[in-house]
Amino acid sequence: MESIGFIGLGKMGGNMAARYLAAGYTVYGEVRDRSGAQWLIDQGLRWVETPREVAESADIVMTSLPNDQVVESVAGGPDGLLAGLGEGKVWADLSTISPGTSRELANRVRNDRRGAAIRPSPGASRRSRQGRSRSWSVATRRPIGASSRYFVS
User: Of 5, 45, 116, 147, which one's alpha carbon is 20 to 30 angstroms from that of 23?
Assistant: First the structure.
């Protein structure tokens, strides 16, 4: 069973992480304030300290963040998600960001050949609680194979 990582454990990311934990997946997570994720840690979330560690630990990384600047800060730098995203890994960005930032980050993943970046169409946290998020676009140089079953309903 593939492991899942979450960066951003608010309403949407936290609800999704809880669903994966309840289904028996190994789930890694990181958020700015660990105390806000304690309820997930109590359910078995494996806490790590940096976005890079999430990407290194999990097969599939999901980001659920509030804006372009936060996503860019989490993605870049030596402890950023992109530094830990290796070949064969998948990054699904669920964040509230502009299409331009989404395309730029997907291009960085594609050009660095660091796995696959997947971007959902706009949705709501209510659908994530119900397990009904859908409509994904992919930026990759390779097929994502079995991982797509986690994203396409």
Answer: 116
